[in-house]
Amino acid sequence: AGLSASTQPYVLFIDGDWIADAASVDELIRELSTRPAHAIVVPRFMDDLGNDHAGHNVRRFPTSKALAAEFLMLHKMFVSDAVSKYRMLDFDHVTDRDIDHSCGAFILARREALVSVGGYDESFEGAWFEDIDLAQRLRRRGWLSRYCSSAVALHIGRETQRHFFIEHCYDAYY
Fold it and tell me: In whole angstroms, what is the distance from residue 114 CA to residue 6 CA?
C-alpha cells in the first residue's frame, strides 16, 4: 500500500523497533544515488549496547542445508559451515560491499526497482523470507543490493517479533 502511494525516487522501510539519525539516512540516499544498478541499501545494524547484529542484517542467499540446520537449530549444537556462510559470519561489518540480501527491518530502496518487480509479496505472513524473496526477484531483473557501513540503524527492542514464537527463543536462536 505504501509503495503505490509513494512518488519519491527512494522508499525507506523501517520496522517499529529501529531508529537512525538523519545523517545515516542521508548516507543511504547518497549510496543509492551514486549506484544506479543498486535497488536496496542497508545500514550497519547495532543494538543499544553498540554491538553489531552479525549474522542478522546481511546474508548470502540461503541453501537448503543452511535453512535445515538453522530451523532445526543444529547450528547451536554443531558447527555449521552452511549457516556460517549463509549468515556471513566471516564479514567484518566495517567494509561497504554488495550483498545477496539484507534483513528488511531497515532498508532504503529505489522505488523504480521495487515497482519493476511488484514490491514486497504481501502473501508472506509474519516475518522472514519476504526480504529474501524480494532480493531474489530484484537480482533476476539485474538489480543489486548493498551494505553501507557508514550509516547506522539502532535496534531498540524486539517489537516486530513480539507476537512470534521465535521471540521466546531469540537469544538461543541467534
Answer: 11
Asked whether the predicted pLDDT for residue 119 surpasses 70, the reply is yes
Question: C-alpha angle 116/122/123, rounded to 5°?
Answer: 120
| Mean of all residue pLDDT scores within the chain | 86
Q: Cell 543494538 sits at which residue?
A: 47
Alpha helices, H only, the chain: 2-5, 22-33, 64-71, 81-86, 111-117, 130-140, 170-173
Residues paired with 81 in a beta bridge: none
Show the cell assigned to 129: 523470507
Burial label, 28 (beta-carbon count in 10 A; 0-12, 13-18, 19+): buried
Rounded to whole angstroms, the maximal C-alpha distance in the chain is: 48
Nearest-angstrom CA–CA distance, 151 and 27: 6
Grid coordinates of 56: 542478522
pLDDT in tens, 89-113: 888 889 999 999 998 899 999 999 9
Q: What is the pLDDT of residues 22-44, one digit of tens each?
A: 999 999 999 999 999 999 999 99
- Cα–Cα distance measured from residue 99 to residue 92, given in angstroms and rounded to the nearest whole number: 13
Residue type, 12: L
Indicate the DSSP class of residue 160: G
